[in-house]
């Protein structure tokens, strides 16, 4: 269960969401797209087109030649494992063939996305149906979504209930802007919402459904709107992987020279620890993303060389301060709020 | 015997302690009731096999009673109407009442005729999820109290419970539960992430607090601190600063 905290204007997390779905189409997985904001048909039309290996390989080769070899040029590869969760792979120079690349300036062709079986759930269309399951005091929008997911899983046999089916496929579920007001949840509206538990109950049941079937799910949540931090902590506990995207638009970091090449930061708050005592923690803790014309990449953040002579003391401290914040950024292992004096 | 052990984690994942206790008690021949709310049976099974215990076999011979929370909640929500005499242990999802869960625990650990297991053990992973699912903190504390009376005092067994929480957490309900449980525990194992940040060789530090002050008035609690590194099949502990990477 991948939990993505949206950036403020939902530009970049939307991209991540679309990548997840596009990868599903290219791999031939079934899709279920749920949203209360946009109609899923529109979402599907906006998916990026996959790049054929040879053209992309050439482009990458040109780019790599133009860049110094000692740079940490991690291209983004979102590698998908079948038992649920995406693992972020940051291999510097070898482009392993796991996952596909996409060109975001082009849209995916209708034949391609119609070649897989996809289901949609648009909340405002479903409001007329009454949920048949016990809602357990959960928000009715969430209850309907759960019912829909459960129905698709059992009807299409993703939970192994149909032994006749020889070819087992994976279901990719994408849920957009969960927890926002559009779903009927007031978690984003106030510090003490009326219904504190709908979101967490929903996630728990969803987790149960995912564990029981061959599916993977990505959720985007406008975390910056949720004022009650207790809920965010509980939600983090209930998810397998938690990634936060912080974009620089509109914040003072936009003009900070530290970040001039990037459009935002990626915070990995939690990584999955399934079927094993340990989890696969990569070395790279400071990740930033950047949106180029055709590509969305996630790279290791590195400080640019401090070449200017007229750097004033104040801005130097500023840079140092944000660098410290960066290196203690991964909350999965530890988060040192105390600044160490050297 | 008759001890209440609290497993606590802060800023890191303490579930390796749960896996340890599970395989430890199974190997010791105790009857274990495992309330597994957060992960599926196969997850625990795979890890337990790496630690040398087969959960499936233990379930077969009746040594392990496994409540798989995720599966039970699906049955509760999407299954057919349950029989009136047998409420689902996860009924608190709709009624916020943890009594059915307690009854489940009590029934599974009460020795049946023909059982030759040693003292019963209740293992819970993890208690903080109950709060997320709508139970009130007082209800959770009551549940634990009932379990203690029944398992520790009446059945002379042990209870091991995992909670999440940090000292500066914003989740007040959770903090309430954790603090209260800390006061009543005989042994606290507290796994924390390192304050200085992430390190590849030292995954965290564990504080072992033996609450001697509970049993005898003048005694002070004994606190030991070790650091640990988690590997695929076991966890190595060492004194602070003496990690193998440093020596």
From TrEMBL, chain A:
Q: Where are the transmembrane segments?
A: none
Please give the chief subcellular localization of this protein.
Answer: cytoplasm
| GO CC terms of this entry | cytoplasm; elongator holoenzyme complex; transcription elongation factor complex
Q: In which pathway does it act?
A: tRNA modification; 5-methoxycarbonylmethyl-2-thiouridine-tRNA biosynthesis
Looking up Pfam families in the UniProt record yields: PAXNEB
Look up the coiled coil feature and give its residue ranges: none
Q: Which UniProt keywords apply?
A: Cytoplasm, Nucleus, tRNA processing
> Which cellular compartments is it found in?
Cytoplasm; Nucleus
Q: Which domain of life is it from?
A: Eukaryota
Q: Name one GO biological process term.
A: tRNA wobble uridine modification
* Function noted in UniProt: Component of the elongator complex which is required for multiple tRNA modifications, including mcm5U (5-methoxycarbonylmethyl uridine), mcm5s2U (5-methoxycarbonylmethyl-2-thiouridine), and ncm5U (5-carbamoylmethyl uridine). The elongator complex catalyzes the formation of carboxymethyluridine in the wobble base at position 34 in tRNAs.
- Family membership, please give it: Belongs to the ELP4 family.
Query: What's the protein here called?
Result: Elongator complex protein 4
Encoding gene (name) = Elp4
UniProtKB/TrEMBL annotation, chain B:
Q: Name one GO cellular component term.
A: nucleus
Gene3D superfamilies given in the database record: P-loop containing nucleotide triphosphate hydrolases
What's the superkingdom here?
Eukaryota
Q: Cite the CDD domains for this sequence.
A: Elp6 (cd19495)
**UniProt keywords, alphabetically:** Cytoplasm, Nucleus, tRNA processing
The question of whether Nucleus is a record keyword is answered with: yes
Q: What is its main location?
A: cytoplasm
Protein family membership: Belongs to the ELP6 family.
Question: Is the keyword Transmembrane helix in the record?
Answer: no
> What InterPro entries does its record include?
ELP6, P-loop_NTPase
Which one Pfam family would you cite for this protein? Answer: ELP6
Provide the protein's localization.
Cytoplasm; Nucleus
What is the protein named?
Answer: Elongator complex protein 6
| GO BP field | tRNA wobble uridine modification
Q: In which pathway does it act?
A: tRNA modification; 5-methoxycarbonylmethyl-2-thiouridine-tRNA biosynthesis
């Amino acid at each position: 269960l991948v939990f993505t905290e949206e950036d403020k204007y939902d530009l970049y997390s939307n991209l991540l969401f679309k990548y997840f779905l596009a990868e599903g189409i290219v791999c031939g997985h079934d899709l279920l797209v749920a949203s209360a904001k946009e109609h899923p048909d529109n979402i599907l039309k906006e998916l990026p087109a996959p790049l054929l290996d040879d053209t992309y390989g050439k482009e990458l080769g040109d780019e790599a030649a133009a860049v110094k070899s000692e740079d940490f040029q991690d291209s983004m590869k979102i590698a998908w494992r079948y038992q649920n969760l995406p693992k972020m792979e940051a291999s510097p120079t070898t482009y392993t063939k796991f996952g596909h690349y996409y060109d975001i300036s082009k849209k995916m062709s209708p034949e391609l996305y119609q070649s897989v079986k996809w289901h949609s759930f648009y909340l405002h269309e479903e409001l007329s149906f009454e949920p048949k399951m016990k809602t357990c005091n959960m928000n009715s929008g969430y209850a309907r979504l759960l019912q829909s997911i459960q129905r698709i899983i059992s009807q299409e046999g993703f939970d192994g209930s149909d032994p006749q089916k020889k070819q087992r496929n994976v279901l990719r579920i994408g849920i957009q802007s969960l927890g926002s007001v559009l779903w009927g949840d007031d978690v984003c509206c106030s510090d003490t919402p009326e219904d504190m538990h709908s979101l967490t109950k929903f996630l728990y049941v969803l987790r149960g459904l995912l564990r029981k079937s061959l599916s993977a799910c990505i959720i985007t949540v406008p975390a910056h709107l949720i004022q009650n931090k207790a809920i965010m902590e509980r939600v983090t506990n209930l998810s397998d992987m938690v990634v936060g995207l912080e974009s620089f638009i509109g914040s003072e970091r936009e003009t900070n020279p530290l970040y001039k090449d990037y459009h935002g930061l990626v915070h990995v708050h939690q990584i999955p620890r399934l079927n094993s005592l340990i989890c696969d923690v990569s070395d790279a803790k400071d990740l930033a993303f950047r949106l180029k014309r055709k590509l969305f990449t996630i790279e290791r953040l590195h400080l640019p060389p401090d070449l200017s002579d007229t750097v004033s003391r104040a801005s130097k401290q500023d840079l140092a301060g944000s660098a410290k914040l960066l290196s203690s950024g991964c909350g999965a292992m530890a988060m040192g709020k105390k600044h160490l004096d050297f | 015997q008759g001890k209440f052990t609290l497993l606590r984690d802060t800023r890191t994942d303490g579930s390796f302690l749960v896996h340890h206790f599970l395989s430890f008690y199974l190997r010791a021949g105790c009857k274990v009731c495992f309330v597994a709310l957060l992960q599926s049976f196969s997850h625990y099974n795979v890890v337990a096999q790496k630690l040398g215990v087969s959960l499936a076999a233990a379930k077969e011979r009746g040594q392990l009673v496994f409540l798989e929370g995720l599966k039970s909640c699906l049955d509760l929500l999407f299954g057919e109407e349950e029989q009136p005499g047998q409420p689902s242990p996860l009924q608190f999802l709709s009624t916020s009442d943890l009594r059915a869960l307690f009854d489940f625990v009590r029934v599974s650990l009460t020795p049946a005729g023909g059982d030759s297991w040693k003292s019963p053990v209740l293992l819970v992973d993890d208690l903080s999820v109950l709060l997320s699912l709508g139970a009130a903190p007082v209800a959770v504390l009551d549940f634990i109290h009932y379990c203690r009376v029944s398992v520790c005092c009446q059945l002379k067994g042990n209870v091991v419970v995992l909670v999440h929480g940090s000292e500066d957490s914003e989740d007040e309900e959770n903090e309430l539960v954790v603090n209260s449980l800390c006061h009543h525990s005989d042994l606290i194992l507290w796994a924390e992430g390192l304050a200085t940040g992430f390190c590849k060789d030292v995954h965290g530090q564990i504080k072992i607090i033996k609450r001697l002050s509970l049993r005898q008035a003048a005694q002070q609690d004994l606190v030991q601190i070790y650091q640990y590194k988690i590997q695929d099949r076991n966890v190595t502990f060492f004194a602070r600063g003496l990690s193998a990477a440093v020596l």
